[in-house]
């Protein structure tokens, strides 16, 4: 009996803590911010999430000025080679493979103690992954659905053999209100031209 109790005690100290990574989503007008909260003991190295929008809306641009942890975008980064050295041509954007129904959010961390850009340590346990805008020209409320993209790894931990628990899928209602044809960020080029021509007809 004592041996069994001792074995259970040893096992309790050797089993790693369960990795739990939750995804958050908030809306400010038509701006959606996706964040993360890692409550487990395992470091997260990358995220691959499916972003889907409803009711004929679509993603019209991202806004990520100060992403300091997950600043590598594997789905859209591009390279070129000079004298045998591979260099980054374009860092890309967090939203890759965008289409009419949404896109794939793909971000990763990269750090080293000697990194000249300040990426010298692992990512924080919580923070922002990406902010993007949805087209509100359809009016009403738009649903943004977020799920794991298993093909690209979903939530990838430093130890690839550990699969974290997540709260995905999650949904967010974006209260767009009435159609907003006057917002430049939401107009297509054709809509801008049409609006300008209509304005000209009212000028003397």
Comma- or semicolon-separated keywords:
6-stranded antiparallel β-sheet, 204 residues, disordered N terminus, 13 strands, 42% strand, globular, disordered C terminus, mainly beta
Q: Mean pLDDT score, rounded?
A: 77
Q: Runs with pLDDT <50, length 5+?
A: 1-15, 178-204
Give the helix level as a range of percent.
10-25%
What structural class do you assign from the helix and strand content? mainly beta
DSSP strand count:
13
Proportion of residues in β-strands: 35-45%
CATH architecture: Sandwich
Q: Classify the fold: give the CATH topology.
A: Immunoglobulin-like
- Tally of contiguous helical segments: 2
CATH C-level class: Mainly Beta
Major β-sheet annotation: 6 strands, antiparallel
**What is the gyration radius calculated from CA atoms?**
22 Å
Q: How would you describe the oligomerization state of the chains in this entry? A: single chain
Q: End-to-end distance, in Å?
A: 98 Å
Element string (H = helix, E = strand): HEEEEEEEEEEEEEH
Q: How would you sum up the global shape? A: globular
Count of discrete structural domains? 1
Overall description:
The chain has 204 residues and is mainly beta. The protein has a single domain, classed as Immunoglobulin-like. Helices cover 13% and strands 42% of the residues. The strands form three sheets. Strands 3, 7, 8, 10, 11 and 13 form a six-stranded antiparallel beta sheet that branches. It has a five-stranded mixed beta sheet with strand order 4-9-2-1-12, with no helix packed on it. Strand 5 and strand 6 form a beta hairpin. It is globular and about 50 Å long. The termini are far apart. The N terminus and C terminus are likely disordered.
